[in-house]
Design goal:
By secondary structure, the protein is α/β, with parallel strands linked by helices. The chain contains nine helices and 14 strands.
Length: about 260
């Protein structure tokens, strides 16, 4: 389990996160949703260890603060919202940065690129790619870092910040299928998503955030509820549930609350 208790993050005199208790289970995809500025990325950065925070964070039952950098790198990989490279790396070189001690495997980068639908892109320069292609290259890099969903019976984790934001619908589904397959194979996935319908379709658990706090957490059918979503997002939203049982969310009016 990836968990946090009494988590607090302050920037200057302002509390960005306050009183956060968070749980994500291995074998499941946990989606964090909420409006801009609700604290989603701050929470993910705190969980990853990138951002200093008060409170307790535990990775697979161990205090994150007691783990060495190489131990963290073996157990969790982080995909940020955006990555800017100032040098002309090839796609293969960028992906290979995630391999670490697995760099002796000459085909690992190629297998990761094939998984994200970028086979034969390895020799191209990263800066020549579209935004969506660059995003998938970064996902391939992250997959190289934690290629196996579990090591010695202990789960590995993908922490993904808006992994589908620049992608067309086909590749949105591809990336979410990759994340779900990683979880089904025994790993854990925590993903920030803006598309509530993708979250409903793929997530096992949804964490709804608003103003630096967790408003609701649980299965999609429990969290995706008219009143809570409308209040958090500040517009009238309606949740439907077709016979297949997967909720879908639609705006109900053009007026904002």
């Amino acid at each position: 389990m990836f968990s946090a208790r009494h988590l607090r993050v302050d920037l200057g005199r302002r509390a960005i996160l306050a009183g956060i208790d968070f749980d994500a289970e291995a074998g499941a995809l946990t989606a964090i949703v909420g409006p801009n500025g609700s604290g989603k990325t701050t929470l993910l950065r705190a969980l990853s260890g990138e951002l200093a925070a008060e409170g307790e964070i535990r990775l697979n039952g161990r205090d994150m603060g007691a783990l060495k950098p190489w131990q963290l790198a073996e157990r969790r990989a982080v995909l940020p919202q955006a990555t800017v490279l100032g040098f002309p790396f090839t796609v293969r070189e960028v992906v290979g940065l995630g391999a670490g001690r697995r760099s002796a495997d000459p085909m690992l980068a190629e297998r990761a690129l094939e998984r994200v639908d970028l086979a034969h892109f390895g020799g191209r320069f990263y800066q020549e790619l579209s935004g969506g292609e660059q995003q998938r290259v970064q996902l391939a890099r992250v997959l190289c870092q934690v290629w196996s969903p579990a090591i010695d019976g202990e789960p590995c984790w993908l922490l993904l910040d808006e992994p589908v934001s620049s992608l067309d619908i086909r590749h949105q589904l591809l990336v979410m299928e990759i994340a779900r397959a990683f979880a089904r194979a025994g790993g854990g996935v925590i993903a920030i998503l803006h598309d509530l319908n993708l979250a409903a379709l793929f997530a096992d658990r949804i964490v709804l955030m608003g103003r630096g706090r967790i408003v609701a957490a649980g299965p999609p059918g429990e969290v995706l509820e008219d009143e809570a979503l409308s209040a958090v997002f500040g517009c009238v939203l309606r949740v439907g549930v077709p016979p297949a049982g997967v909720p879908f969310v639609l705006p109900h009016a053009t007026q904002l609350q």
